[in-house]
Structures are given as structure tokens and as C-alpha cells.
Design a protein that fits this description.
The structure is a single chain. The chain is an all-alpha fold and about 240 residues long. It folds into two domains: about 55 residues, Arc Repressor Mutant, subunit A (Orthogonal Bundle), CATH 1.10.10; about 180 residues, Tetracycline Repressor, domain 2, CATH 1.10.357.10. It is built from eleven helices and no strands. The radius of gyration is 20 Å and the shape is globular.
Amino acid sequence: MEFQRARSASQREQRRRAILETAAAMLDEMPVGQLSLNELSRRVGLAKSNVLRYFESREAVLLELLEVQTRDWVAALEEVLVPVEGTVAERGDRLAALLGHSLAERPVLCDLISTQAAVLEHNVSAQVVLEHKRASLRAVERLRNAVRRALPELGVQDAHRLVAMILLTVGAAWPHARPPEALRAAFDADPALAPLRVEFTDLVAQMVAVSVSGLLARAEDRPLGARVPAARASPLLER
């Protein structure tokens, strides 16, 4: 940045983008837990107090980065989750595979999702969380609509449930797929522990495929004309 002090709205926005881009670059090198506000400030070339003029905390930076990463992910999925020919099972498996691979290609997003509830949504104000949850809801609705284009047999409520299951699966599976050094050594030392290893892409794809099958089966079991219970908000959106 050529300016020393951001005076205009465009300069302030440019500085916010620089902070977010620097944080994203740092997460290519380290997990969320190792990213400090001091190091972020140093790399972006600002005093810590100046970074706090744009974001109220480290967690606020990471929450906004999560929103950016999620929007990019959903936009990419909207390009590939399109109607195709095939049986429901075949299209469900295609959907599951696309979701698994798309997430595995975005480790920063997965790391942010996995720390959202326990870390990122702490040390922030109610206003920051409110804005984040509204952005999350918009992303969930876009992804739900993309899922239904690929698999229209899912109703709106079940597509919403599937999106919630996907996000919860990522949050749980990602840390287990990135074990610490001691655990990796234990796996290598004892082949009998192999069933405990987590392969992220396959696990997400399997969970999505099973969830799709279960949601469709439950829909088929409902008597014709039966009311579907109102969908409760995703736990990810209630936090």
C-alpha cells in the first residue's frame, strides 16, 4: 500500500482486504491456533493498534475470512452442481464426491470451519457475530439451492438439513484428519490402528452419500399428503 494513513473509504477497504489476504496467506503455513495478532500485524505492515481499528480482535479477522472463503467455495460449487442424467443413487454419489473433493482442496476453509464454534465465535462482540451469522445464512441458502439443482428429489428442508450435516461433518472430521506428530507416529508404529485413521475426502463423501440416502428414504416413508415437520435451524446457525 502506497499510503501511510487510510483517509478515504476505498483506502480503508483496501487495508481491510490486505489484512484478510495476509491472514489467508498465513493460514497456508500454519493452523488457526498458531496465527497471532502480533504476527499478522507485522506481516501486513501495521501496528497492532491499527489492525484493531479495522477488526476488533484476531477472531473477528478470522470470522470475516471464513465468510470470504465460504462465499468462494459456494460460488465454485454453483458452477459444478448442475442437473445431470442418472439414477437418484448415481446423482447422490456424484454430489457426495464433488463435495468431498471441493472441501479437501480448501484446507484453510476446513480449518476455519473446524474452529468456528470453539474459537472464532469467542472474543467478538454481539454485532460481529450477528453480521457473521447473517452472512452464514446467505451462504447456506445458496448452497442449499445448488444441492437441489443437482438432486431435486431433496425438498427445501431436507436440502437444508444436508448442508448442516456437511458443515458439521467438516468441523468434526478435519481435526482428526490432521493428527499431531505423536499420533501419526503411533499409527505408523502399530498397523492395527489403521481403522482409526481418518481420510478426510473419503469420509466427507461417505457421510454425504449416507445422509442423502437417509433423507430420501425418510421422505419416501411419509404417507402421501403428510406434513413434514418444520425444519429447525442448523446448530451452526444457532450458535
